[in-house]
């Protein structure tokens, strides 16, 4: 939800003009009735037209965190025409996501949903109802159940080994001065995020589409670079605070140019998805009666032909579904591992302990396999600690109340946008000792947080949300993130480029639907295992 500086000044002009023009009328027409009829949670007084948008900065979770300190853990805001409620404590998170789960299960419909996901045709923007339930069931049955995930362990193993191979090649090239090295004094400086994107993209691509589509020379309509840009753009546009969503009469002006960008990104996605869909349809036609569905796209296309389906699936729904899952499966885990590596490079003691655990459990003559993860408790604690301080979606993703609800002594009217600030909860000194310190030890069995998991049952740690709408990809993410991280640490010795002190490493964030590092992490990777282990799958 970022307001770019130029857009912000344009917004200021529009808003000032609008406010001046409409002030008198609006003040008369202001929804006093809402305030009178409902006992809303406390919050700052909204301005006409803009509501409290003037209080929300470049990083909304931080602005909202500051406001919550003043107005309390259950707070009312107004974004343009829409009422907003924010929960910033364990108790309010429980109210929204467990006690009243069904009342807050919808999502607001936005321009991004309309333009970038086939008119909200996938899972993410879908209102609660038969179609959404059918989609979630399908995900569980075809992709994310334990049996299916286990059967695809070899796919994840191969792609992680390929990532280690590619990183080794990039590090060697950088060390030899052949590519974007520099700053490492002849050492191997690598841009980690690119590798993290690709490993996640390849895994989700093989799971959904049966093969890797985004590889050079594959005939795909998008190159790896274009696709990475497309995913970044998609996540930015779907998280951005688009003022036109909040002040509907501004939407025809498209004040920030976001809608134009959404249409452009949608076109590129569509070209890619049509290519994949056509390829799948050709095999179906070729194989006729012998056709067997091999991947999620096949399953969806078969369902699209099924006249008995509870809610019909159309071609655009197939594409929207795949798009939501490809986006969800690529960016989130990459962002998490990049934050984990940033924290480890800032905390050499933690890095040393993680390395010691890997050396002891895995040894020096193999890479880490998925089945090793349960034997690496410190690694698991690092993942939890990373997601506590750097939840990928700090405000979860916006929910919408379907009915009037009384919660925590206040009223929350139907149609209110609801956020849970997990970023605040992760920093709450009433919940966490020394909350600003990166201390995985707090999650090790026997310590106070030893029993806290991140699967939506413990409201102090909710990176995947909780309740019926929580992340369906959690099982995959909890396999990918520790597996990638463990192999990065086991296969390479890492340090910051020469001249960058640990305490100087920037930890600035940028905001979209996920919150990645503002500046991609660059670090020196030195191989430390026998050469044959870098040969790839
Ligand atoms: C570290 C990794 C991940 C994190 C932290 C994460 C987090 C989240 C969160 C917070 C939500 C919103 C939940 C809510 O509204 O309460 C969500 C929704 C979603 N996630 Fe994830 N996610 C991750 C990985 C994945 C993966 C790997 C996939 C798919 C392959 C995925 C697919 C989705 C989808 C489709 C939704 C929308 C579900 C719906 O609205 O019904 N996510 N995720």
UniProtKB/TrEMBL annotation:
<dbReference type="InterPro" id="IPR017972">
    <property type="entry name" value="Cyt_P450_CS"/>
</dbReference>
<feature type="transmembrane region" description="Helical">
    <location>
        <begin position="6"/>
        <end position="29"/>
    </location>
</feature>
<dbReference type="InterPro" id="IPR001128">
    <property type="entry name" value="Cyt_P450"/>
</dbReference>
<dbReference type="GO" id="GO:0020037">
    <property type="term" value="F:heme binding"/>
</dbReference>
<keyword id="KW-0503">Monooxygenase</keyword>
<keyword id="KW-0408">Iron</keyword>
<keyword id="KW-1133">Transmembrane helix</keyword>
<keyword id="KW-0349">Heme</keyword>
<dbReference type="InterPro" id="IPR036396">
    <property type="entry name" value="Cyt_P450_sf"/>
</dbReference>
<dbReference type="InterPro" id="IPR002401">
    <property type="entry name" value="Cyt_P450_E_grp-I"/>
</dbReference>
<dbReference type="Pfam" id="PF00067">
    <property type="entry name" value="p450"/>
</dbReference>
<comment type="similarity">
    <text>Belongs to the cytochrome P450 family.</text>
</comment>
<keyword id="KW-0812">Transmembrane</keyword>
<dbReference type="GO" id="GO:0004497">
    <property type="term" value="F:monooxygenase activity"/>
</dbReference>
<dbReference type="GO" id="GO:0016705">
    <property type="term" value="F:oxidoreductase activity, acting on paired donors, with incorporation or reduction of molecular oxygen"/>
</dbReference>
<keyword id="KW-0472">Membrane</keyword>
<keyword id="KW-0479">Metal-binding</keyword>
<dbReference type="GO" id="GO:0005506">
    <property type="term" value="F:iron ion binding"/>
</dbReference>
<protein>
    <submittedName>
        <fullName>Uncharacterized protein</fullName>
    </submittedName>
</protein>
<keyword id="KW-0560">Oxidoreductase</keyword>
<feature type="binding site" description="axial binding residue">
    <location>
        <position position="471"/>
    </location>
    <ligand>
        <name>heme</name>
    </ligand>
</feature>
